[in-house]
Design brief:
about 210 residues; mainly alpha; 9 helices; globular; about 75% helix
């Protein structure tokens, strides 16, 4: 009897390369503040993270599985590497300033510490919920994603919406959708000569919505 091995989906190298590039751009953004960087790179570096996440998302997963998966892959590393860094020990044992240390811990509650982790958690779970609710109907998901983006932009100055970066998470849903839509279009556009054009349009949309 022949036992078939389960199919293992191959990783796409260009996705990993762009992920690495995104990390590099974020790091350089803290070091370099030139005009060209702010004009071309700064508006797209964070949306690119969401776009790539949307590209590899599999919307058919049960929402419960997504929730636990995101909690495990995002928050366990966050707490392990953020609760025990040199800064926390410096506050508590060198400065012996419990007030500053308590403020540092409070950042884990309101999401002001490593805000992107909280924002991505909220946006990815909401995006899965939207896909599940609309049964993966692309047009409906796109409209809801756009409405989320508009809501996030309009509430950027609303204080309570900054908890867990909810307003940023809402804008991120659109970029998750764009990545997911790009995946579907890429599968339909079989001819590789059209792929650079599709990539160019996608980058232009990322820039446009980022501004």
């Amino acid at each position: 009897m022949i036992i078939e091995k389960p199919k293992v989906e191959q990783r796409e190298d260009w996705v990993d390369i762009l992920r690495g590039l995104s990390v590099f751009l974020v790091i350089t953004g803290h070091l370099y503040t030139g005009y060209l960087y702010h004009l071309v790179v700064n508006p797209v570096k964070m949306p690119l993270f969401y776009f790539l996440a949307g590209y590899v998302i599999k919307p058919g997963k049960p929402l419960k599985d997504v929730l636990f998966s995101r909690l495990k892959t995002l928050f366990i590393p966050l707490f392990v590497f953020s609760l025990f860094p040199a800064r926390a020990f410096y506050y508590l044992f060198v400065l012996k300033n419990t007030q500053t240390f308590n403020s540092y811990l409070l950042g884990f509650v309101d999401g002001s510490i490593n805000w992107f982790i909280y924002s991505f958690f909220v946006s990815s779970v909401l995006f899965y919920a939207i896909c599940s609710g609309f049964k993966n109907r692309g047009a409906a998901i796109g409209i809801v994603s756009l409405l989320c983006f508009v809501t996030g932009v309009l509430t950027k100055d609303v204080k309570w919406m900054s908890i867990w970066s909810i307003n940023t998470a809402l804008t991120g849903i659109l970029f998750l959708y764009m990545g997911s839509a790009f995946k579907r279009l890429q599968q339909k556009v079989m001819s590789k000569r059209y792929l650079p054009f599709l990539c160019g349009i996608t980058y232009a949309l990322l820039i446009a919505f980022s501004y």
